Amino acid sequence: MAAAWAVVLAERPEGEGPASVAEMMAAVETVVSREDLAAAVESVRELLPPPGSDDDGDAEWRASLVDRYATVRPFIDMLSAVIPWGATEAGTEVLAALRGLPR
């Protein structure tokens, strides 16, 4: 999602008008497939309360998590580079995600 939004938010060259939806999607698909983007959106959707819902029992926890991210962020790059992580076959996806954190 971050790669897709980087494309969407990139400034267009001077003199070019706004991009059409088709042009924007074509540019986004140069960095991430629609399937991967849809999967990322679904992952985020699973973490968020339903749209329009005022009944979020985890609102306090979510706010706390956002506040702590600024503290943890500087260490994410080091976490995957300094510690020689290993995993069983079942944990390889988690290990790949950990190594991908800096991106």
Q: Which descriptors apply to this entry?
A:
extended, 2 domains, 5 helices, single chain, 103 residues, mainly alpha
Fold topology:
Layout: H1 2-9, H2 21-28, H3 34-47, H4 59-82, H5 92-99
Would you give an account of this structure?
The chain has 2 domains: 1-47, no CATH class; 54-103, no CATH class. The protein has 5 helices and no strands. The protein has helices at 2-9, 21-28, 34-47, 59-82, 92-99. The relative contact order is 0.07. The model has no long low-confidence stretch (mean pLDDT 83).
Number of helices: 5
Whole-angstrom Rg: 18 Å
Helix content: 55-70%
Unreliable spans are none
Order of helices and strands: HHHHH
N- and C-termini, Cα separation? 11 Å
Count of the domains: 2
Q: What is the overall shape?
A: extended
In short:
By secondary structure, this protein is mainly alpha-helical.
